[in-house]
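Before the break, one more example. Copy the sequence into your notebook; we will annotate it together after we see the structure.
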Amino acid sequence: MTRRMVSPWARRAVLWSLLLCAGLGFLPSHGAAGEGRGYVTVSTASFVSSSTCVDDPPGGRAATRRNGTSAVLRLTHRHGPCGPAPASASALERPSLLDTLRADQRRAEYIQRRVSGAAAAQARGLQLGGSKSATFPANLGYSIGTLQYVVTVSLGTPAVAQTMEVDTGSDVSWVQCKPCPSPPCYGQKDPLFDPTRSSSYSAVPCSASACSQLALYSYGCSGGQCGYVVSYGDGSNTTGVYSSDTLTLTGSDALKGFLFGCGHAQQGLFSGIDGLLGLGRLGQSLVSQASASYGGVFSYCLPPTPNSVGYLTLGGPSSTSGFSTTPLLSASNGPTFYIVMLTSISVGGQQLAIDASVFSTGAVVDTGTVVTRLPPTAYGALRSAFRAAMAPYGYPAAASTGILDTCYDFSSYGTVTLPTVSLTFSGGATMNLGAAGIITGGCLAFAPTGGDSSASILGNVQQRSFELRFDGNTVGFMPGSC
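Here is what the structure looks like once it is written out:
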């Protein structure tokens, strides 16, 4: 199939959309072209990662979105052009999209097993406190087998830099610690954290309340020291000594007595990161431990491309002005997770005929899952509507990529026109997705769950470029924030 086979109507539609972009000054790379008209026209070059770092300058748009918060750290894509030099040549290797989706499926299935079947409860809040805030950038990286995001913080006294994955779906933070031979530890960018060189380090004793509160993360005691274990959805795990030390977020923002896992044995696909920063809802998470300083509020903006920069903010103004908000729910089987209620989906500006009961299990907001998962009934309706809206343009179909079954070959096109996709949540909060949240690897960036009773998952592809704000009671969305 070639462009000569495209109908005259389709050619007129593409021409009209291009004229709109040129005449009205829309920014296609952020999905703005044609919003409200049912389509968005973008350059196919935007689907390809650039080798040039596009950083946010001091006082730029990201800083404005952060409302003048007190501290900012520059963070980069782990493998992208903004990132630090890798520890070894192997660290340069990115997993293929197919390998990424395989690991992503394992994670999604794990989350769905934890959450599905548990009724959504009333919104549950974390203790809110002062207005102090700290901001540090987050960037797209590759770890635990999926597209992930990392921040750089420091641990110990003197402070030692640690590049850590950010995960809203887990609670215990950890880093690899000496002694840790390879195996059972993996190669990482920075030197292993050496607790013997930190004057503020201490192992948590077995008799401490922090040890008993580990619950399912407890790994017994050895020599009077509290052990921990964390297993992840893709089969990766970490074990070691539960510990306390000073966590430095920025040069002027530090948390003394921060509880974390000092890992002495790790297994799985951690891909060079130094550790993990848990942002879940239980007491062990960074959000909970920092609530006295930052009020239990946090937000993040996942960058839209590997060569751009986003941010993670602890604290900030209490106002939700500028955010479209939806209530935060809880599931008894998955208290770690941030759950919202998806109510409808629109394609090309038209709401799909999906009964609201299909979404009754809720949707987990997860930074670690790549593509959004929907119950099969909802996914089938989305796929059918998307394919029908794409048909007039005559784009050649491409083979499926793993779980992604609606794929196109855009290689001979300079620009493409896509139907818009919008996700609406309880209370009316709506995410109008840009092209980067609709297509990944030439494919529709959504996949079905194992059944209509399974929870949906809002993946990180759809979250990119939105600022998501969490305050214990609501989740807020603000587009075009990084």
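The CA atoms of residues 157 and 199 lie 6 Å apart. The chain is about 15% helix and 30% strand. Try to locate both features in your own notes.
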